[in-house]
Each structure stands twice: as structure tokens, then as C-alpha cells.
Write a structure and sequence with these properties.
The protein is of the alpha+beta class. The chain has five helices and three strands. 13% of the residues are buried. The site of zinc ion has 6 residues, from loops.
Length: 97
């Protein structure tokens, strides 16, 4: 499966063939969808997710992948660390000392 991030709202979707640049490109806004990688399963994909995706809502990711949030963090503990860090930062920003 080929994993892509939509340029609209950041949804992740998969295809069973590799899209060409023309297919990814959006004429309406000049932006394009992003190729994230090729994996056999959603779990493989989750395992390989890097820190750049820490800002994804884990519930959204888990739901998209058809797994629980606990399973998501089990597959990729780094996501949980980054998630905690990300939300702690947000909290600090809201309440400056
Ligand atoms: Zn567009």
C-alpha cells in the first residue's frame, strides 16, 4: 500500500498503486498531496512514523488505521513521547509564567 497525506486537512489515505506527481498535484490550489511511504500494513506504517507526525491527533491516527490509541502507542512509543511533549508545550504556552 502507498500512504499519502492529503493537502486538504492532512488526512492520510492509501492506494494500491503509486500515484504520479500529476495525480498528487491539485490544480485548484497549486498544492499537492505528500507521499509518506510504502508499507504492507497500517501497523507497519504506524511503526515507522517519525517525529514530524507527532502533532497528529493520536485518536485520529488510530481511527484512520483501525486500531486503538493504546495499540498505536504500543506500536510506536515515540509517538506517545512526542505527543506528551507536544501537549505539554501547548499547555505552557497557554499559561506563561
Ligand atoms: Zn487543493
Amino acid at each position: 500500500m502507498y500512504f499519502y497525506e492529503s493537502h486538504l486537512g492532512g488526512n492520510i489515505y492509501t492506494t494500491d498503486y503509486e500515484k504520479t506527481y500529476d495525480e498528487l498535484y491539485c490544480e485548484e490550489c497549486g498544492d499537492s498531496d505528500t507521499f509518506l511511504g510504502e508499507y504492507d500494513t497500517w501497523e507497519e506504517f504506524i511503526k515507522d512514523l517519525g517525529t514530524e507526525y507527532a502533532s497528529y491527533d493520536p485518536e485520529f491516527l488510530a481511527e484512520t488505521a483501525g486500531i486503538t490509541v493504546d495499540r498505536l502507542f504500543e506500536l510506536n512509543p515515540k509517538l506517545k513521547e512526542d505527543y506528551d511533549e507536544y501537549y505539554n508545550k501547548e499547555e505552557n504556552n497557554e499559561r506563561p509564567t
